[in-house]
Amino acid sequence: MAGDDGHRNAAGLGVGPDREKEGKIHTKLRAGSLKLYELEKQIAPVDAVRVRREFIEHETGTTLENIGIFSIDVNRAATRNCENMIGAVQVPVGVAGPLAVNGEFAKGVFWLPLATTEGALVASVNRGASAITKAGGAEVRILHDGMTRAPVFAAESVGHAKKVADWAEAHEKELAAIAQTTTTHGEMTGLVTFIAGTSVFVRLEFDTKDAMGMNMVTIASAKIADEIAKATGARLIALSGNMCTDKKPAAINGIMGRGRSVVAGIALSHELIEKVFKTDAKTMVEVNYRKNLIGSARAGSMGFNAHAANVVAAMFIACGQDAAHAIDGSTCMTTIDATETGVYVAVTLPSLPVGTVGGGTGVDTQNECLRILGVAGGGTPPGANAKKLAEIIGAGVLAGELSLIGALAAQHLARAHQELGRGQKR
């Protein structure tokens, strides 16, 4: 453990803190002559985390003994994943499965790690996974793959704006070559422009292989944006103009895709629906139609699903993905087609920004969850692991949608939450 009594050095051996030196550091912190973010320059990261936590305890009058207990590598986390680190918040991780997946990249049976504090979620996904596996496995496909960044430029007039957009589109190959000078892993694969008055947005798309890729595309986009400004006389206003669109629900992501676009489906028989969900095909179709389609449309929702973001968020947190991108899961569309033998249920997730290298994927606990799925690190060929993870998440969302729609169709939702701790008497 790496906490108050679990210091690590580079060799993994325990070392004691230099209390005299740390006492002087505390004095400087309280005097304001030393900033919290400067601690790693003074002492080892593991000690910096503890000293910072002790300072916050003193400042707030709060005991942080649990935040100070964790097993992840502080040297990595404090220098690559989290500034001003004081410890770690632990989120329970449950597993759902086995889940059979018949994808192009994910083939086999998987156990899904789900990090959540919501009682009933893991149980719900588990039930959906059981139905999918009994039905032969989810059919999953990647529809599109591309991470985006969209700089915004200011033009002098609408005529100038059109010239800027035309120039960028005409020089796509040259701009792609410029992007290639910034990375050995990714490549620019597309460019599309949008104009609003004198604002010009250039939405750039990249193949980022096994990385989620935001850092990669941001660095490449900066160099491209400089070239566009230099060549056209347009003023670069912001490297991200919100046409990307990053960490916000947006129709453009639903239409054009962002990250990995995934579709997953399963055929369920009348007998299986009755056995697992205690309802029938006709009722499931009507619940999906009136709730997920009509209800979502009437509410002006950008997503047409039961709770897709629930599963996306739980898997993102467990697997070291950027948790803010869980918002993209909310744009999922769930469809149910009536068939002669039962129903065909599908989920379409146009935007899943996921990766298996970089970011939080190297944090010890999250990396273990990726290893559970067999997707840690780079894939062969490059990009295969990230696509595999996207397919598994798509199948997991399908399992969650099936279970909740089934519970609603059988009028079991409130009872399930009560039995699993959501409505217990106090």
Q: Can you tell me about this structure?
A:
This protein has 426 residues and is α+β, with helices and mostly antiparallel strands. It folds into 3 domains: 37-90; 93-145 and 260-419, Alpha-Beta Complex (3-hydroxy-3-methylglutaryl-coenzyme A Reductase, Chain A, domain 2), CATH 3.90.770.10; 151-238, Alpha-Beta Plaits, CATH 3.30.70.420. 43% of the residues lie in helices and 20% in strands. The protein has 15 helices and 10 strands. Strands 1, 2, 3, 4, 5, 6, 7, 8, 9 and 10 form a 10-stranded mixed beta sheet that branches. A hairpin with a 3-residue loop joins strand 9 (333-338) and strand 10 (342-352). The longest helix has 26 residues, at 384-409. 46% of the residues are buried. Residues 1-14 have low confidence and may be disordered.
* Name of the CATH first level of the largest domain: Alpha Beta
CATH architecture of the largest domain: Alpha-Beta Complex
What share of residues is helical? 40-55%
CATH T-level fold name of the largest domain: 3-hydroxy-3-methylglutaryl-coenzyme A Reductase, Chain A, domain 2
Number of strands: 10
Report the β-strand fraction as a percent range.
15-25%
Structural class: alpha+beta
Q: N- to C-terminal separation?
A: 34 Å
Total helices: the number is 15
The value of Rg in angstroms is 25 Å
Q: What number is the mean pLDDT? A: 93
